Amino acid sequence: MNYLILGFAKIKYMPYLDFYLNSINLSENHVDVVYWNRDLKEERIPYKNVNFIEFRKKMKDDNSKLSKINSFVQYFYFCKRILKKKYDRVIVLHTLPGILNCWILFWKYKEKYIFDYRDVTYEKNFLYRFIVSRLVKNSYFTSVSSNGFRKFLPKSCNHKIFINHNIVKNSLLHRNDIDSHCKNVIVRLAFWGFMREKRLNECIIKAVSEDKRFELHFYGRELNVSIKLKDYAKKIGASNVFFHGEYQPEERYEFIKKIDLIHNIYAESTNMMLAMTNKFYDGIIFYVPQICMSGSHMGMIVQEKEIGFSCDPYKKNFLNEVFEYYQHIDRKKFILSCDNCLKKCIEEMDFVKEKVNSTFLRVD
């Protein structure tokens, strides 16, 4: 059987690719995976028996939306040529590949594709939101990376919308390698991943710079926002704020050992107020408490599940609340809460995996 997976980023930035490839018998089926090499650096291919098709076009994550249009058009034509081939099933690993290729999906692959929905950046646009609803209705089923995203999807399709968490199997293999209960004399707060929010993080950097009970560490590619934040930290003399640059996914197992709290705060977009980040899952896997934005979907979950603390960095003296929370964590109760939350997430993932294996991959 022939399967196509439409990706929209470099392979190392698609950890959710694992979930679908692990569901397919790669020795008996042909699988094409489209990925977008945006920095033109050589990609390490971690999978065997999979045909990877590279779309090679430089585009930075923090480019303006307008400047990305030409790249999106080229990506569309690239995918269109591939989709004209005969595939038995298609897996669309992001909203934009679905939007750009919607007509051929509706016409040629109706109810033969999975729509993996993990971004609500453009949902304020009526036409965009309409196409998303049609993608859901014409899909075999739709998986969401956060239940917070359901508010943008048709309620009439709830029976075919399932949550599929971003838990990387390799992370679970390292769970017992990390004793994250380090209780440093100084509370080490860390953020890792793509930096989006300048104003929010300037506020956090300033607060930390004035509070020597904390250190703040940033791990990730130094692009537009992170460069400006680094300059800002230097300008105000924030000697307890550190920028460590780009890292490979497996390298986070090392720096997680050294931290006390995860900075998982986002506040400047609807998408991030509703999203579930990879750091959320790192927190429950490696028993690291996390702080999230008050009023966000993750903020609600970490409070409800007792795996973290929701706060507002724009509030005066918010670090006092964070420090107070951290000092009074009941470690045994916290570990149990992480285990229960992780168990629930894995059960929901297993449900989707069974749905993929038992019906979607069977071709009539």
Supply the key terms:
364 residues; alpha/beta; Rossmann fold; 2 domains; 7-stranded parallel β-sheet; 6-stranded parallel β-sheet; 14 helices
* Rg value: 21 Å
What is the C-level CATH assignment of the largest domain?
A: Alpha Beta
For CATH, the homologous superfamily of the largest domain is named as Glycogen Phosphorylase B
Number of domains: 2
Write the element-wise H/E pattern from the N-terminal end onward. EHEEHEHHEHEEHEHEHEHEHHEHEHH
As residue ranges, the low-confidence spans are none
CATH topology description of the largest domain? Rossmann fold
Q: Care to describe what's here?
A:
This protein is an alpha/beta fold and 364 residues long. It folds into 2 domains: 2-164, Rossmann fold; 171-343, Rossmann fold (3-Layer(aba) Sandwich). It has 14 helices and 13 strands. A 7-stranded parallel sheet has the order 3-2-1-4-5-6-7, with helices on both faces. The protein has a 6-stranded parallel sheet with strand order 10-9-8-11-12-13, sandwiched between helices. The mean pLDDT is 92.
Give a brief rundown of this model.
The protein has 364 residues and is an alpha/beta fold.
SSE diagram, text form:
Blueprint: E1 2-6, H1 17-21, E2 30-37, E3 51-56, H2 65-83, E4 89-92, H3 95-100, H4 102-108, E5 113-117, H5 126-138, E6 141-144, E7 161-163, H6 169-173, E8 187-192, H7 198-209, E9 214-219, H8 224-235, E10 241-243, H9 252-256, E11 261-263, H10 270-274, H11 278-285, E12 290-293, H12 297-305, E13 308-311, H13 318-327, H14 331-360
Parallel strand pairs: 1-2, 1-4, 2-3, 4-5, 5-6, 6-7, 8-9, 8-11, 9-10, 11-12, 12-13
Helix pairs in contact: 7-8, 11-14
